[in-house]
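Case study 2.
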Amino acid sequence: MWRIALQTALLFLTPFVAYVGFHLLQRRWPFVAELWHGRVLSLLTIAGLITAIAGMLTLGLTGRQQGAYVPAHVENGRLVPGQFQ
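Prediction:
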């Protein structure tokens, strides 16, 4: 569960990190209040939400195995790893 929440949070933060990287490449200090006015924050938030939703949809449609999970168990004295069946 933590992995899914962390992946979604990182996807949401991607536009903010790109914005900071853009200002660092222009040799400007990105943590000045004038660069983070309302319009910029709104656009970055919308871009982050779109990125996070697209990532969750992609993971939900392609990332998961179908079927039931059989946990690791011992058969005939050998450890059989967990798998989807």
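Residues 38-63 form the longest helix (26 residues).
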